[in-house]
Write a structure and sequence with these properties.
This protein is mostly helical. It contains four helices and four strands, in the order ααββαββα.
């Protein structure tokens, strides 16, 4: 019968293991949010009628936030933890472009408001108010499929890395 016991990891291995686990959960969520958007076939614009754009916006925001949490440094046990960049080395040029876009969207649209992305032109008129230019909360279906493939690659790498960490503790 196999032995079953908790493994006590070194502080650095534990921090990395915790980051990898959180990233695993976030990338799985990212994949599922994308799958839901694709299943629904959403391609709504802000001016579309009904509530589909609102729902689509929520799923796109959740997808971007999940991906960003997974691959952007975060605080674990009081210290900053970076996602292991070697787990992204298998990305091809198109995937690296999506990776960069996802990080940009997370930092400029979904996690922080930015004057570059949310523009307004003050206007004085009795007929209308200021002129706003806000980002559209959407992602093309081909980009979502590419992102899902990226998630699967990284998820496999995370699982291998977590197994290697545990294997180092007999």
């Amino acid at each position: 019968m196999d032995e079953s016991r908790e493994i006590i990891l070194s502080p650095s291995d534990n921090s990395l293991y915790q980051k990898l686990n959180a990233s695993l959960q976030d990338l799985d969520s990212c994949y599922e949010f994308g799958a839901f958007i694709l299943k629904k076939g959403w391609k709504a614009k802000p001016w579309s009628r009904g509530s589909i754009y609102l729902q689509q916006s929520a799923f796109v925001a959740a997808m971007v936030a999940s991906y960003g949490r997974a691959v952007i440094k975060s605080r674990m046990h009081g210290k900053m933890m970076h996602f292991p960049e070697e787990l992204l080395r298998e990305f091809n040029e198109a995937e690296m472009a999506i990776h960069g876009r996802m990080k940009w969207l997370r930092n400029k649209i979904y996690a922080h408001s930015d004057g570059e992305s949310y523009k307004v032109r003050p206007w004085r008129s009795s007929a209308h108010s200021d002129i706003y230019q806000n980002p559209t909360h959407e992602m093309g279906h081909e980009d979502i499929r590419l992102l899902q493939g990226m998630c699967l690659k990284v998820l496999a790498g995370i699982k291998e890395r977590m197994a290697a960490i545990k294997a180092a503790y007999p």
